[in-house]
Give the backbone structure.
Amino acid sequence: MNFRKKIIIILSVGFSLLLGWYLFVKESDYCITFTAKTATGTIFQGINEWSTAQKKGKNENYTILEKRNYDFIKQQMKDADEEMEYTWNMNSINDSTTSVSIGIKDLNHSLYNRLTVPFYPTKFKTAQIEKIKSFKTGLEDHIDDFKIKIDGEKTSKEIYVAYISLKSVVQEKAQTMIGYDAKIVGYLDRNKIKIIGFRPYLEVTNWDQDKEIVSFNYCFPISKDTKYVPDSTVKFKTIPSIKGIQATYYGNFRTSDRAWFTLLDYAKKHDIKLKNKPLEHFLDNPFNGGNELEWKTEIIIPYDVE
């Protein structure tokens, strides 16, 4: 066998293997990529919220098949006419930018899509581009609603507080605090306990990232010599000084967890180990109204030194 025939055989085998992989092994029929100026976790949460909106608006039912570390989520979508898989990969490029890749597979017409998508603007291809464009536009609108600044290494002050222990999904922590605000503030008012500065804290005691649930203390600073009046839910304690990485968040307190995700991406990029126990200090009172982009929250996540 001469050299030319060997090359032809090798190329033919290679092409056959590549074609077989593309048609029958490759996970997605089509892939869409874009970048966003936000953290991986913010996009992850955005996907969940978008999926819920798609169900309400277009009767598309999304089921999570697999997820990981706020940077990967695989969904199955079903509606009256289609059955799709969406595989989202979020890769942090730097402290403020994330690359997003979405692999899309039509479970009922996968082979046809693979034969046509590279060559024609098929209905499948056009519809998926419009769908992801819509998601990206919504994400960018949300990103415009807040600002985050990484402050670097900081040490919080020790503070004595009255607190109430609460639990909620991450997205509803602010609403949960508001729901119990009258309980703790009423206790302090009834017992003539002065709130120092009226700038509360949120101390996370456990963050279950898989279930996206947080246990936390909603805290108001008080004098350390305050006499405790027994209560079934309100307690007193000292929040110790902690050292870690801090960010300043400007925006509505409902989405201050966006700064958590930014700090996690920052720590990952700089090979820093953090405990998943953010401490938030709210420096503005939302009941006073005003421009939400001027509402300031300092958020520190402590180093994991164990």
